[in-house]
Amino acid sequence: MEKPESTNNDQQPCLPKYDFVRQIVADDIRTGKWDQRTHTRFPPEPNGYLHIGHAKAICLNFGIAAEFGGKCNLRFDDTNPTKEEQEYVDSIIEDIKWLGWDWEDRLYFASDYFDQMYEYGVELIKKGKAYVCDLTAEETREYRGSLTEAGKGSPYRSRSVEENIELFEKMKDGEFKDGEKTLKAKNDMASANVNMRDPVMYRILHAAHHRTGDQWCIYPMYDWAHGLEDSIEGITHSICTLEFENHRPLYDWFLDALWIHHPQQIEFARLNLTYTVMSKRKLLRLVQDGLVSGWDDPRMPTLSGMRRRGFSPEAIRNFCKTIGVNKFNSTIDYALLEHCLRQDLNKTSPRAMAVINPVKLVIDNYPENESEELEAINNPDDPSAGMRKVPFSKELYIEREDFMEEPPKKFFRLAPGREVRLRYAYFVKCTDVVKDEKGEIKEIHCTYDSATRGGDSPDGRKVKATLHWVCAKNSKSAQVRLYDYLFTKENPDQAEEGEDFTANLNPDSLKILDNCFIEPSLADCGPLDRVQFERLGYFCVDPERTEDGRPIFNRTVTLRDTWAKMQKAQQKK
Ligand code: ATP
Ligand code: MG
What we know:
- The structure is a single chain.
- The chain has about 575 residues and is an alpha/beta fold.
- It has three domains: about 30-270, 3-Layer(aba) Sandwich (Rossmann fold); about 280-350 and about 480-570, CATH 2.40.240.10; about 355-470, CATH 2.40.240.10.
- Helix content is about 25%, strand content about 25%.
- Strands 12-25-26-27-23-24-13 form a seven-stranded mixed β-sheet. A seven-stranded mixed β-sheet has the order 21-18-19-20-14-17-22, with no helix packed on it.
- Strand 19 (about 425-435) and strand 20 form a beta hairpin.
- It binds adenosine-5'-triphosphate (ATP) and magnesium ion.
- Adenosine-5'-triphosphate binds near residues 57, 241, 278, 279 and 280.
């Protein structure tokens, strides 16, 4: 029997599937909790470059705003003057734009709210909920107690409101030295949550700030500032990572004490990836110690490094969609990231031929001084990409690995007496090899069959291999850089005693091949252009050139999809 057109048997509307954060947002819209408003933000601290973990948070916050007709702010959480720099602000802006997100005119800085935060501090003092404390940092730690032991109240806890206001103003006016005094919240030294035991709200720091200069010598602590920033901006859903879950009671306490707009905080699990580190402190260490070439080293998990490596914004966004959002910390297999990358590059990258470890192939029966142009397909997955011409002549380069003088059983490529196909060109048959004095193969000699032009034999003859090649005379020289994981261990933090994560750096993570040849159609390629070198992988043109002006190609990823293979194998089980 034919089914009726609407087969909604269980009478359920076909709802899209939401992750738990989106479900909260959707429910809030349904119940009118925020007057149909959805307002998120991405709040980076400008103390390093963004990495793929940040991309997860960016796609979540900007994605939710886009999907629910809301807004997402970009706000720099620049409350720590000693570690923050304009360079980081600029790079973060560039990276988020590159990923394809737009904050319109809502670019904010926490430092713009310093006056307002100071006022809020005064208000809490007036309400008897904050006090100026003279304990040193060390003493403060002692008084705080531990997870098993209650804290004890600071002797300065009972200062009068007037005295506190006066001292707080003097702190602001620079009358005390660094560390001499702090402003603390007066909440609960016996709380089971250590974060609630009179946390520091302001510290004295005579340091210039990248935006406010010397205007301030007191700076708000993160736990005090963060909730205020969200509140001031009217954020509805303050989305952050799990480690802030037990800070939430404190944020709630501050906002409720001040009676100001109170966003809902939602915590999700941060992204961890195998074979890399994501902490900015560790990434900074790699940069500062010269263990990588910079924040944008193509081996780094930073967005600038990944861009230089050849990642597309689409691939990264698709990866973030694929991994989803949940409440449990886990580590994602790097192969999944590469899988998402290949899916995108396969659709978008034009094909070309390059030989990265060349050996000369001479076609003895091809006319001397003659050449021709053969038709090659630019992208088999995209007919609109069209065709291009590839020059062919008597002398070519092929990969050294594609020839073996004494081939083992499963080697089907070129060998003495054997015939193979040269992609888009002809069948060639190996007749001889010429070696240098060290016994290394210098030239491979072949004959070609002119009837096989284009790559097929009219008599139906089959060959077992198709090789890529470039024309020796007409190709261009290039440098190719091959990359491997930056670390040898899935979890680089797993180090021997007395060593740290840098002990697990992969000594073979970069291989430079300086004697490569690319087909002439690539001569005009520009920085960050992407291309698939047939049989070798996806590559991206580096923004820099070699000292002698040749282009550099970074291998983005190989062609073989280990993730897809793994999934198939698992399905079979
Ligand atoms: P680090 O701990 O390395 O210093 P951070 O989390 O302090 O990094 P921020 O600049 O404060 O770095 O991060 C901005 C936002 O990005 C925060 O909301 C943070 O929760 C989120 N974020 C940072 N790392 C990850 C990650 N690995 N996965 C998901 N979100 C992340
Ligand atoms: Mg942070």
